Amino acid sequence: MAWSGRRAMLLTTTLLLAAALSESCDPGDLVQGCRVEGPNYCVCGLGCRTSFSYATREQCLTASRGERGDPCSSQPCRHHSYCTQIIADPGYQCFCDGTGYYGRHCELSE
């Protein structure tokens, strides 16, 4: 039996949802977007806001070509915090949750 039509759509949707949920983010943080996976390569779909930070494939491809570069590659976030790319300047945001630090770069002790 071939997978086509509604069955294929259901399987694809189920797999995308399972992948998104495996990133363990709150349901309110799930977005449809894109993320850079390498030079000139983006993955688009449903995922956590922190990972899928580009709203369109065009924005993601611009970043993947190095026109904006990966602002997290310089490791601006300190104390084992999490860096994610965002569209607004400076192009990244540090998530300090659970580190005991706060501030733009998670540099200030609580």
UniProtKB/TrEMBL annotation:
Q: Which domain of life is it from?
A: Eukaryota
Give every EGF-like domain span.
68-107
For the keyword NAD, the answer is no
Q: Gene3D superfamilies from the entry?
A: Laminin (2.10.25.10)
Key words, A-Z: Disulfide bond, EGF-like domain, Signal
Bridged cysteine pairs (disulfide): C77-C94
Q: Which SMART domains does this entry report, sorted A to Z?
A: EGF (SM00181)
Give the signal peptide, or none: 1-24
Supply the name of the protein. Answer: Protein crumbs
Organism of provenance: Hyalella azteca (Amphipod)
Lineage of the species this protein comes from: Eukaryota, Metazoa, Ecdysozoa, Arthropoda, Crustacea
